[in-house]
Description:
Layout: H1 39-52, H2 54-86, H3 89-122, H4 139-170, H5 172-187, H6 191-205, H7 208-234, H8 237-244, H9 248-258, H10 263-282, H11 288-307, H12 318-326
Helix pairs in contact: 1-11, 2-3, 2-11, 3-8, 3-11, 4-5, 4-7, 4-9, 5-6, 8-9, 10-11
Amino acid sequence: MVLPPLPDDREPARAPAWPGSARPRGSDPTGGADSSPPLAAILRASGSTFQGRLAACLAAYWGAAAANWLLVTTCRAILSGLNELVGEPAFSEFARFLLFLADILVPIWLQIGLNLVLLKIARSEPTAFDDLFRGGGYLLTTLLATFLFLSIAAAPVLIAHFLVERILDRSPLLTLLLSGFTWLSAAGAPPSILEGVESLIAWELDREAIRGILTGLAGAVLLAPVVLAVLARLGQFSYLIIDQGTGVVDALRGSWRLTRGRFATVIAVYFAYLTINCAGLLALCVGWIFTLPMTSLLLVMTYLALSERAPVWAPSHPETGEEEAAA
């Protein structure tokens, strides 16, 4: 089944045209200021493409969501039936593990397929519904790259968790005082009692060991914005994997190069992504029917804007590379 394009979706007004796109691809402009299209240009191109291929965008996004729900629900039903039929504790654990894999692999597989379809839509190429299920060849690479990506994100969280555990181990009284202060405040205790509890908390926190751990915890908290900035620069890896066939390390390194000097544009796009979806949420969640597909396309258009004049790291995706070579 072919996703229905509108009759005018190949008109020049519908195709994304980035400022300076006439410059040959292959030169690397990443060494200077932000050379990617500004946020307004990306939003205009995304809005124009979304409007021109509205049916295709909605069918791709919600088709992937429906397929994900159907496949995961089917896996749950089958494994639950087999578990009741076999009735062995060992098989129950195995079935739970298989369901865990399904909950991880199926959404990532379909997200890859959705990105493949959205890349075609952004390039004004015809799409088919079975494109959503053609992400299997990129699944392992995407999983490994995602694992590295999330490992970077988890680092400050794990450090903060470890330091909090150290504080609680060294000062069990502190946990009791903090919880007691919360309950007393909620119950409207007299100020004199609250001040006494605050003094005990301050005395407990002033201990040498606790102060050292708190310093480390503050450092972990201050490190969080730096980690978020790194993640923003690495966030294009999934598109490089499916569009240029890069490996795990090359995808992350390629994303770092794509966003060099363009950090402000990337952050602005993410803020626009959140703002648009929050607006859809405020519209009694009905707006999500349109905002979620539109913002997914926005991220794809951002990748195309960033890679417009960037060097190619690997051969293009076979389904798009042939048409690009012919052009």
